[in-house]
Each structure stands twice: as structure tokens, then as C-alpha cells.
Amino acid sequence: MRHCAAFVPSSVSPEFWMPCTAPAIGRGLFCVVHRDAVDGAMLGMHAARVMRPRMMIHAKKRCGAKAKIATRNSAARTQYGASCSPRL
């Protein structure tokens, strides 16, 4: 039986990592806990990739409204001018 391919923090020191001793499930590389973690990370990356274009569209729409307000005075221009670029 193969062991999980993931590493876990050592109980001796936070600087050391030890191999996970749980058995790997089926023909996979990871145990149940680490397989769930990998699945969650992959779904999160996929969601971020899907949501990114929507966030950029909303940021552009909001920047237009801020730009109209920002033209009133120079203080507002400096306050809102840099925030119109999407932070992704």
C-alpha cells in the first residue's frame, strides 16, 4: 500500500516537514484529506479565472463614475486616479 505524497508540518519544529503517513486512496497520490485540499485549490483557481473577466468589467464601469467625480477638483483626481486600474 502506497503512502500519501503530501507533506505535513512536523510536531517537533515548524521549520521541518514530514511525509504524510496516511495511505493513498485507490490509484491516487494523496490521502483523503490531502485529495480534498487539492480539489478545493483547483476549484478555487478555476473560480478565480472565471470571475476575473467579470471583476474587470465591473471595475471599468465603476472607474467611469469615479472619473466624472474626479474631474471636479485636483484632490479628487489624485485620490481616484490610481484606483481605476483593476487590482487583479
Explain what you see:
The protein is mainly α and 88 residues long. The chain has one domain (7-84). 53% of the residues lie in helices and 7% in strands. Strands 1-2 form a two-stranded antiparallel ribbon. The radius of gyration is 23 Å and the shape is elongated. The model has no long low-confidence stretch (mean pLDDT 75).
What overall geometry do the principal axes of the alpha carbons give?
A: elongated
Oligomer: single chain
Share of residues in strands: 5-15%
How many distinct domains?
1
Q: Walk across the major sheet and give the strand order.
A: 1-2
Cα(first) to Cα(last) distance is 43 Å
Radius of gyration: 23 Å
Write the layout of secondary structure elements.
Elements: E1 7-9, E2 17-19, H1 32-70, H2 74-81
Antiparallel strand pairs: 1-2
Helix pairs in contact: 1-2
Summarize this entry quickly:
The protein is mostly helical.
Task: Provide the descriptors you would attach to this structure in a database record.
53% helix; 7% strand; two-stranded antiparallel ribbon; elongated; single chain; 88 residues; mainly alpha; 2 strands
